[in-house]
Amino acid sequence: MNLGPKETRKRLVMGVVMLAAGVGIAVALSVGGSDRWRRLVVFFPFWMAGLGLYQAKERT
Predict the structure, then answer these.
(1) pLDDT bracket for residue 59 (50, 70, 90)
(2) Predicted model pTM
(3) Contact 11/52 with Cβ under 8 angstroms?
(4) Torsion-angle region of residue 14: left (phi > 0), alpha (psi -120 to 50) or beta?
(5) To which H or E segment does residue 53 belong?
(6) Are 55 and 9 in contact (CB under 8 A)?
């Protein structure tokens, strides 16, 4: 357990915000008719969301 409650909360909030951003970007790109390669940009927000949520859960 390396993170205190304040840092755990910060990582949790970051994970949730990035997850929402990823979903929003994915919907916007899909509705906008973007090609497949441009939709790869949603990888980064989902990756950041996964990292944040994992770190908050494991407190690492």
Answers:
(1) confident
(2) 0.86
(3) yes
(4) alpha
(5) helix 43-58
(6) no
Q: What's the burial of 48, exposed, middle or buried (CB within 10 Å: 0-12/13-18/19+)?
A: middle
For 48, the token pair is 């950041």
Quick: pLDDT tens for 2-40. 778 999 999 999 999 999 999 999 999 999 988 888 889
DSSP conformational letter for 34: -
Tell me how far apart the alpha carbons of residues 9 and 30 are, in angstroms, rounded to a whole number.
32
**Residue in this structure with the two tokens 């990888």, named with its chain if needed:** 43
